[in-house]
Backbone:
């Protein structure tokens, strides 16, 4: 599992960008989405998630704003920018290429 | 807001500096953890189980805090460049102001008409005024490198300096303008014995400008 999670961690940014493509979201919702989508096999640590948010925000791929919740604590929402969208497409293409190459190199012959 | 979670997160941030970014991060983590906690309890977990799951999910925040602290502003050298450009513009404008009346001296020495001298003088002054206005409108604002008190003070100071520079720019424009009107009125009316009053009026206008600025300051 440790190799899998290392591999996944390298794609944290792309996972976040993908989720924001549909609509603006906040930390817990994104993590919940990851959990549900992977049937509980993977979940980001809060610290990993927020450090990714800051990094993405600093490089201008996402931007954030505070929601106006009437009840409870206010939430910080994130929204994807234009350069975030193009970064997502680029990362996706890169990943597909890497996947093909690795498959080609490590798959058993004759399968 | 669950008090146990709140206390736990407060504990994690205890030794972190109290900057705006870090307080916001704390608030964000708290709100999301609370969401998760309520979700878990709603899903059938006991409060104790839910608390443990939430705490286990937070991970190590110390790296995150360091990341926020060391983020440096890329605008520092932009401010420096802006200062140099602004200094050049101001000195050019003042040079033009000083130069502008000299046409009269040169033209009377060459025994040429004053009209051309007047035209040249106005051109000089208009260019100078234009430079000063352009300079105060395009000033680079100081962006905080981080959110500590020191940076907030710096930002405040820059804003204050900009206000003062507007005031000194106004004075710099006022005096050459008075000088032009002095020559203009004197040459057309030939009433040299009284036109010097303009300069006394200038002192009064200067006083009024500083009163206006002081009133503006008190309102803030």
Residues:
């Amino acid at each position: 599992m440790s190799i899998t999670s290392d591999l996944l961690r390298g794609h944290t940014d792309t996972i976040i960008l993908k989720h924001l493509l549909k609509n603006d979201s906040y930390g817990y919702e994104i993590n919940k989405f990851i959990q549900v989508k992977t049937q509980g096999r993977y979940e980001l640590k809060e610290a990993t998630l927020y450090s990714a948010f800051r990094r993405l925000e600093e490089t201008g791929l996402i931007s954030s704003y505070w929601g106006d919740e009437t009840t409870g604590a206010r939430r910080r929402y994130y929204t994807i920018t234009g350069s975030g969208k193009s970064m997502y497409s680029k990362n996706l293409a890169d990943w597909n290429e890497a996947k093909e190459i690795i498959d080609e190199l490590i798959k058993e012959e004759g399968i | 807001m669950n008090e146990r979670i709140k206390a736990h997160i407060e504990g994690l941030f205890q030794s972190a500096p109290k900057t705006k970014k870090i307080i916001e991060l704390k608030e964000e983590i708290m709100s999301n953890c609370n969401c998760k906690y309520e979700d878990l309890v709603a899903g059938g977990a006991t409060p104790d189980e839910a608390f443990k799951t939430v705490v286990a999910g937070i991970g190590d925040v110390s790296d995150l805090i360091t990341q926020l602290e060391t983020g440096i502003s890329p605008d520092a050298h932009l401010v420096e460049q802006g200062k140099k450009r602004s200094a050049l513009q101001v000195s050019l404008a003042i040079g033009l102001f000083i130069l502008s009346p000299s046409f009269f001296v040169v033209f009377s020495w060459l025994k040429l008409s004053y009209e051309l001298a007047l035209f040249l003088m106005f051109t000089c002054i208009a260019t100078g005024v234009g430079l000063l206005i352009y300079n105060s409108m395009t000033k680079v604002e100081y962006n905080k490198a981080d959110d500590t008190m020191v940076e907030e003070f710096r930002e405040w100071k820059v804003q204050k300096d900009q206000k003062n520079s507007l005031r000194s720019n106004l004075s710099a424009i006022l005096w050459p303008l008075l000088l032009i009107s002095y020559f203009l009125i004197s040459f057309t009316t030939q009433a040299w014995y009284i036109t010097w009053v303009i300069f006394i009026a200038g002192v009064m206008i200067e006083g009024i400008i500083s009163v206006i600025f002081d009133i503006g300051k008190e309102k803030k």
Notes: Chain B has two domains: 3-70, 76-219.
